[in-house]
Amino acid sequence: MLDIKRIRETPDEVRQAIENKNEKGNPDEVIALDLRRREIISEVERLKNLRNVVSQEIAHLKKDRQDAEEKITEMKSVGETIKQLDEELRTADERLREQLLRLPNLCDASVPVGRTADDNAEVRSWIPPHTMRLNEDPEHTVLDHLELGRKLDILDFDRGAKISGSGFPLYIGEGATLERALINFMLDTHLRDHGYREIFPPFVVNTDSMVGTGQLPKMAEDMYRCAEDDLYLIPTAEVPITNMYRDEILEADRLPSSFCGYSACFRREAGSYGKQTKGFLRVHQFNKVELVKFVHPEHSYDELESLVANVERILQLLEIPYRILLLCTGDTSFSSAKTYDIEVWSPAEETWLEASSCSNFEDFQARRAGIRFRPEGKGSKPQFVHTLNGSGLATSRLMVALLENCQTPEGKIIIPKVLQPYTGFTTIG
RNA sequence: GGAGAGGUGGGUGAGUGGCUGAAACCAACGGUUUGCUAAACCGUCAUACUGGGAAACUGGUAUCGAGGGUUCGAAUCCCUCCCUCUCCGCCA
To answer: Which long-range contacts (CB under 8 A, 24 or more apart) does A202-205 make?
Structure first.
């Protein structure tokens, strides 16, 4: 949520920023609602003040056993007016908040202005030597992850579809173990080497949490919802972890607070049919290790860089080629002010696959969710924290890259060294 | 699922219609004292919105789980809902 004062004071900047982001949103409407709201407030508060003063007088009159009937009658009608105005105010508040919730976050000045993914800027890439050989060797038939999974009997998308529906992968044998190994390896590395504290969150959350991180109201059709209980399956652990501190004021010495948590992630992916959908490329349920930080506003952009570095380290240890993109304004998500995507290389698809997205939300989520901190120093007012998060990483796309990059000409998989203590085996096949 | 108890400020916890934005204590912060630490003492100590002011600051309104009702006036009375806890049942 944007600060209404910022919209009020610099509507043109806000309008331009929304347009750069390819989002809809009308600051004028918000400004009009805000104006109307404040008019009502000043009137209703004047009347409430009157009522409070006169009620006090009535109390004194009664105490002195004097007649207060006239004042009581007068206040009766004031009360009626207040009730009406309160109702109007409630409506105005609601409409204003509704509009505000639908305005996207504005991008940081360092984000390149652009409309589509073509305008994203490649920041750097990292390619371990053996991968190049793999792709350049004409004798080496490169299998995609589906074929590898089927041949080695470690992934079964057909049976997954039978059990649940398409997009619900079933991991078998070494495939299941490898998945679990990846999760544990990533968690351990972030906890041990990168200073995160582990969270194991609930996988379903309430509406307030979804609004807090910005999934609702805009993305409602992408969520799995348990209507009976008004709960949502989480699309990412970002939601429960960020909402841990919803409506709280943190002490300044708690910042920065960095958390790392595994969760299954559920996405309906409505409207994405026809895009890259085969195998792991687009699924309804996947596993992800998520990184979330609550930081002091002054440091959030440094923290974003270190977040990205933490994710990169995982890929380097796994020896998976990747590149980092700075998303342009048009490709940056609704809630984010600046986002880096980390993409892994798929030799079979001969393309880069998004495996992580690291974002600085500045105070956008914090304002929605009411996450503040009390700055050092006496008499300081609470301020909104900045929140960041990134996938560290999602296993589905990572599994594609891992299987494809680690395959031998014979169609076996060589498990990366760092994972071997976790899998207990060194090859599959 | 059945029965009961309870939700008050950062924490504990008083408060059953007006002088309670809310006692007291603890924590925190500032200060005095002290060779240092500790202790003691004094003071400060909620949040949001809104108005005035360049600002320091200051006026107003709201908030005692949420919403509604009664009343001139509600933390306090009534209704609905939510949440937490305890016991029983069921279950991993």
So the answer is: A202/A234, A202/A240, A203/A233, A203/A234, A203/A240, A203/A263, A203/A264, A203/A266, A204/A231, A204/A232, A204/A233, A204/A234, A205/A231, A205/A232, A205/A234, A205/A239, A205/A240, A205/A243
